[in-house]
Amino acid sequence: MLLDKTAHKETLYDVLSVKEDASYEEIRASYRSAILNLHPDKLLKTSEMSSSHQTSGDRFLTVQKAWEILSNSTSRSVYDNELRGSRQDALAADVAEDVSLQDMIAEEAGEALELSYQCRCGDYFTMDSTELEKMGYSLLRDGSEISLHTVDALPGSVILPCGSCSLKARLLINIDDNN
Ligand SMILES: [Zn+2]
Fold it and tell me: In the CATH hierarchy, which top-level class contains the domain 12-71?
């Protein structure tokens, strides 16, 4: 194979050629068209065109597996968490410290709420509620109390960049829980 997939790990979303926020219907439509193209009956007819019959058979299983995980909302949410975790791990090499939400300063920034925490360089690690929402976390404010929620209430973490230097802080979510 000419394609080297080691640099970019293919996600289940890549396998089915859908966006990570695709709906169930979009995933199903994409799965169906992928399966039609990879169906063994169809491969028999087109196998003269290609010597990669075995590869296509493997591909069929890969697509099938991706569909099994992404078509189920529970297994999809577990997978999404793993995916998020592995991406965060890749960034975690420069993490200077772990912080909890209570350590952070929350300030209104237009429609959003901005969280900040001072870096040892004097600048701040920052993250706003809009960015957190894109990652699946919702930041709520009730008077002076702020709280951060994950969709499934599972522990998580977010890497915050410093505004000036290359250090990062890791905001831990649902880890020192109050129950
Ligand atoms: Zn810094």
Answer: mainly alpha
**What separation in Å is there between the alpha carbon of 60 and the centre of ligand 1?**
48
Q: Where are the domains positioned within the chain? A: 12-71, 94-173
Instruction: Give tens-digit pLDDT for 63-106.
Output: 999 999 999 999 999 999 888 888 777 666 778 889 999 899 99
Tokens of 147: 């709280």
Residues above pLDDT 70, as percent of the chain? 82
Structure tokens at 98: 């772990």
Whether the CA torsion 93, 95, 98, 100 is positive or negative: it is negative
Grade residue 42 by pLDDT with cuts at 50, 70 and 90. Answer: low
Contact 27, 12 (CB under 8 A): no
* CATH 1.10.730.10 matches 94-173: no
Instruction: Count other C-beta atoms under 10 Å from residue 86's C-beta.
Output: 11
Q: 0.70 cut: is pTM over it?
A: no
**92 CA from centroid of ligand 1 (Å):** 15
Q: What is the dihedral of CA 47, 48, 51, 57, to 10 degrees?
A: 0
